[in-house]
Amino acid sequence: xxxxxxxxxxxxxxxxxxxxxxxxxxxxxxxxxxxxxxxxxxxxxxxxxxxxxxxxxxxxxxxxxxxxxxxxxxxxxxxxxxxxxxxxxxxxxxxxxxxxxxxxxxxxxxxxxxxxxxxxxxxxxxxxxxxxxxxxxxxxxxxxxxxxxxxxxxxxxxxxxxxxxxxxxxxxxxxxxxxxxxxxxxxxxxxxxxxxxxxxxxxxxxxxxxxxxxxxxxxxxxxxxxxxxxxxxxxxxxxxxxxxxxxxxxxxxxxxxxxxxxxxxxxxxxxxxxxxxxxxxxxxxxxxxxxxxxxxxxxxxxxxxxxxxxxxxxxxxxxxxxxxxxxxxxxxxxxxxxxxxxxxxxxxxxxxxxxxxxxxxxxxxxxxxxxxxxxxxxxxxxxxxxxxxxxxxxxxxxxxxxxxxxxxxxxxxxxxxxxxxxxxxxxxxxxxxxxxxxxxxxxxxxxxxxxxxxxxxxxxxxxxxxxxxxxxxxxxxxxxxxxxxxxxxxxxxxxxxx
Length: 498
Hints:
This protein has 498 residues and is an alpha+beta fold. Helix content is 40%, strand content 13%. Strand 4 and strand 5 (93-97) form a beta hairpin.
């Protein structure tokens, strides 16, 4: 298909209004080019909630033109495909120029939820692909699609996924796989690495300032009148990153590749590669098989977030001017993260009031969970049924622990804490169920969907998506998705290869 000829939008989407503010920055920041589309493309999955956020009708995807656009085989009027350039630190080491090696920005759309950028991942080579082929495989695309939407349903700031298309086109990784494309949606795809690029790789203070001004004007307009807007920007990104780290820790999410080029300037979860949700609680869990040093282990994520913010501060220093001002902006992390995490853990325990010893109560539970390898998601969900009544049967949660006596000692302190705030079991259970998910995207669930999809059956992907879009609901008919992982799941590995 000739990409120079725009496709006809479906009637319901004919009034789409593209703003494309990032493209106005100029070619110093990107390279315009068409996607390398998927031959004989087919739909794999679509997200109705994400489409609704964009203001698209439920049947938007039924147009053949829509399939071609989101398979990289054409564009609608107003789209402006481009790949952006950025740099970054990878596993703590400066990697130099990176960029959208297999991502292609389609444009920025006006929506009822505000401006949203659309991006294809897996649309072929760009000038920033280095030695890569610019493609994404079905396996990793299903994982990113499902997790993007699962995290949104969990209330964790994230990029979204509108749809996924596939093809029989072969792609070589460790073995031959098939190609796929996911359409990402976000208010912005700008990363810490965009700023690092114009400070370190191609120093250009004018471009750096233009980028920072763009981010402030488009996404942080309240900072424009600040006496030190660039320091204020750093402080706001610091706060957002700190709360994002608290969100990840609270739901047991491991990102796997927290490089500076994978950190969003808006504090969003971005770039779902070798991620994972905790099964048995292990603070040292490493979800990325390629992370040989354990740099991005679950318990290290908060410190890595802070490290990455220091890298951003260094990149912004030419604009901020004074090192002390940059360090002062970073200080917000030291209070925001622990306060945010403790607030989330109090909510997970159903606590409505605050006491000085709450941190010890939380740590006591986590230590017991780690010692006995209690399942993270199931433990907190079952804790919602905890009763403070004398001689109550709390075996549903108690039996998750090998050392019952140690759990009983903790449970005694927990029950007393609840009684001091006159907690009512039924009311507390409802509140806890609203923050402790029953369903998360465990690796074995994603693997089952992937295996079915490889055989041409995409129903499991859509079925799992529907479950994950209601993570806090009981959904008794879907109880199997909330069960303990099977033994074979222990042997699953995810890596940077996608």
